[in-house]
Amino acid sequence: MNAAAFLTSLQDATQQLRATAQAELEPLELTLLNYKPSPTAWSILECLEHLNRYSRYYNPQLAKALTRPAAPARAQETGYSWLGRKSVAMMRPENTKKQTTFKHMNPSGSRLGREVVSEFLAHQTQLLDLLAQAQQADLNRKAIPVEFFRLLKLRLGEALEFVVVHQQRHLQQALRVKAGLQVALSC
């Protein structure tokens, strides 16, 4: 896919993530946001806090990579390394295989408040800004250290897609918790 179309699809997905969180999750009461369907499952706020923890790492890394001058992205085809293809595929929402997260990225048992939703929405706005900046970047340049093993690097385009699909995956998880909550309340 050419870089312009690739970035447009990521921008559209990010705008949808933000709109969904604002419409479906932000209005909920704190007790509902903290509802856990089971002792080992994440609440809505835990899903969002997990994403916030990743955004706290990846957004600054993306911003740093985008400050480096590069050729315009318009004519490029977005490429993938083996690591990038595997990382994106693992996080796609349609991949139903359960993934385990690293301990420092696992928010289970954290005391969370409404600020988690606000921070998530702020990260989406920041990501949209980064995607706009990426229009002038080389998306195929290896520039983003992988969070759990920083010697490995993702290409800029791979990292942007990884962030977006990871967010889609966990926002869908949060929406499933909300749907289960509605069923639990109606019983």
UniProtKB/TrEMBL annotation:
SUPFAM superfamilies: DinB/YfiT-like putative metalloenzymes. Pfam families: DinB_2. InterPro entries: DinB-like, DinB/YfiT-like. Residues 14-174 form the DinB-like domain. This is DinB family protein. The lineage of its organism: Bacteria, Pseudomonadati, Bacteroidota, Cytophagia, Cytophagales.
